[in-house]
Each structure stands twice: as C-alpha cells, then as structure tokens.
Amino acid sequence: MATFQVEAQRGEQDHYRCVTLSPRGAAVSNFGELIVRVPPTPIAPPQLLRAGPTYLIIQLNTNSIVGDGPVIRREIQYRASQSTWKETHVVGSLTYKVWHLEPDTEYYISVLLTRPGEGGTGAPGPPLVSRTKCAEPMRALRGLTATEIQPRLLALQWEPLGYNLTRCHTYTLYLCYRYSMPTGTSGGNNATVRECLSVDRNTSHFTLRDLPPFRAVHIRLVLANPEGKKESREVTFQTEEDIPGGIAPESLTFTPLDDMIFLKWEEPVEPNGLITQYEISYQSTESSDPGINVPGPRRTVSKLRNETYHMFSGLHPGTTYLVSVRARTAKGFGQTALTEITTNIS
To answer: Which portions of the chain are predicted below pLDDT 50?
Structure first.
C-alpha cells in the first residue's frame, strides 16, 4: 500500500495502475479510476419556523448546496452566541426541533452535510442567528425586609435578582404598597391608598418616603417580563410614631358662663401615633372689669388621652381668655389650636 499526493482539481479524473518489477519481467494491475470530489455544504442558512422559551424549530433548507452529492447524512450544529461549546445532532427529516435551550438567548445554528466515503463531511453552512423567547419568571422574589423604619420612611431590601429568576433579559420590578387613611374628622371611614413603583432592575433595595406615621404598610414585590409575572407574598411593616398633627380649631366648642367655661375638642385628624395626653393652657387677655389685671397669669392643665373636654372654673366674669389645646404622643407635642372665649358678665 502506498500513499502519494495527486495534483488535481474538482471534477478532474484519470486512471492509475500499479506496476511490479522483477528480474523476469513486469506485472501490471488494472486501471483504477480516480475522480476528485468536494464534500457538500449548504448555500443558505436554516430557516426558523417557530421559537419558544427552550426550543427552536427550524427547516434545514438544504435544497441548494455547493460540493458533490449524494447527501447521505444531515447534522445540526448549534451553540449559544456567548459560549464556546458546540453540540451536534444527527437529523432524520427536513425539519428539526432543537431542545433544552436557555430562554431569551441567542443561538447560532448551522447544517453539516456528508457524502459517501471517508472525509465526506463538508464544512458547516451559513448559520441561522436566532433568539429563544423569554420564559415566565421562575418564582417570586423572597427576603423582603426593612433595614430602617422611621415615622415617614421605610428602607427595604430583598434578595438579589439574577437571570435564574427572571428567565429573561428584559424585565421590570415593581414595588407595590398600600395603607389605610382616615377620611374626615370622625375617623370612622378609611380610604385605601395604593401605588406601584417601578424599581431599578440593577438594585435590591428601595426607600419609601412620605408615608403616614404609625401606619401599617402592606408591601409586595412584582417581577414581570413579556411572558408573565410573579408576585411575592405581602409583608406588613409599621411606621414609627411622630408628633401629632394639630387639633382642628373648628372642632373647639365651648359654653361660657359667668365664672366657668365648658370646652370640648376632637382628636387630631392625624394623630400620628397613640395620643398619651392633652395639654390645655389659658390666660386672661382683656376684661370689662377694670379691677382685674390683664394679662393674667398663664395656667396649664393636663388631661388624659380619652378626656377631650374640660371645665374651667374660678374665672372672672366678663373676661376674655386665650385658650390653647395640643395633643401629645410618645414623640412629643403637636401643633397648638387657639381660641378666644369670653365669660358672661355677672
């Protein structure tokens, strides 16, 4: 057996034979026909028929080839665009479903053709460049906790986001919250405030501001992509107390007598916590009795949280008093409500 180089081009052919020499003469073989063949390669890339989150269905598109047939085997060779590995599958039909792909990932898919004989597999044809669709997020986000709680602020954090959760490179993260707010001064009716905020996708923390003090705030995270969304369970946080809002001046009602005044008021519209006490101050400012020195001394009275009334006694008839009322929580006193009340002339 001998190996030798033949200088020939595709399609050229010739006849070769072996000659054996000996002292008694020569022996020759029959002619062997040698024809140069080029392995086949598709001219066009495969065609995409349908894409899913984890598969691509393609048509091989091998009607036109360069090189020589006949084609006895077809193979699919594919790889992710950001990867160096390749996989090759033998294909038995003109369409093929490439399985077990990653969602929202770009792939290069080529076709290999083989003719009979050793070395009959040609180079890969032009690649089809196609992307799988997004898949629904794997699950809802977890680990929602508060790192800082203030009267009007909640600093929140949660687990870091990754492709293993989003299953898509295009996604949106929403932080949705709700809390109840009283309507009117009676406090009997509540309105629910609801809002969803878009959060920077590259972060795992957010600060909610301008919240009402001493309020239960219910928060959930929503992870959404073009294929669906996952909502986390709702977590409840309570903002801290703050100083109370002012008592509405129009809620102050009074009944003056000649030496007494009966005063009533309502709880602040925004208590901002648990009212612990009320403080009432009063001072005479003018009088129709010239024998009374004005302004008089300022006096202060404390009332329990459930006492929204007070009876002033020992007052001077025909005298105007400046009365102030303010509420207190654990954080301190709120704004003062002022009114002027004049006792009856005796």
So the answer is: 185-186
Please, are residues 137 and 229 in contact by the beta-carbon 8 Å criterion?
yes
Asked if 64 contacts 44 with a C-beta cutoff of 8 angstroms, the reply is yes
Tens of pLDDT, residues 273-319:
999 999 999 999 999 988 888 899 999 999 999 999 999 999 999 99
- 161 is written with which tokens? 């986001």
Euclidean distance between CA atoms 182 and 191, whole angstroms: 6
The answer to whether the CB of 42 falls within 8 A of the CB of 111 is yes
Dist. CA 257–CA 89, nearest whole Å = 102
> Contact 262/297 with Cβ under 8 angstroms?
no
Instruction: Report the distance separating Cα 278 and Cα 271, nearest Å.
Output: 12
Bridge partners, 146 (sequence order) = 156
Rounded CA separation 45/61 (Å): 7
Amino acid at 108: Y
Of 237, 239, 165, 170, nearest to 204 (Cα)? 165
Whose CA is closest to 62, among 124, 132, 119, 11?
124
pLDDT in tens, 48-71: 999 999 999 999 999 999 999 899
What does the block give as tokens for 322? 């400046």
Question: In 109-194, which residue ranges form alpha helices assigned H by DSSP?
Answer: 163-166
Report whether 144 contacts 62 (CB < 8 A). Answer: no
Q: Note whether 162 and 115 are within 8 A (CB).
A: no
Beta sheet of 73-80, edge-to-edge order: 87-91, 73-80, 106-114, 128-131
What pLDDT, on a 0 to 100 scale, did the predictor assign at position 188? 58
CB 92 within 8 A of CB 72: no
Q: How many CB atoms lie within 10 A of CB 53?
A: 17
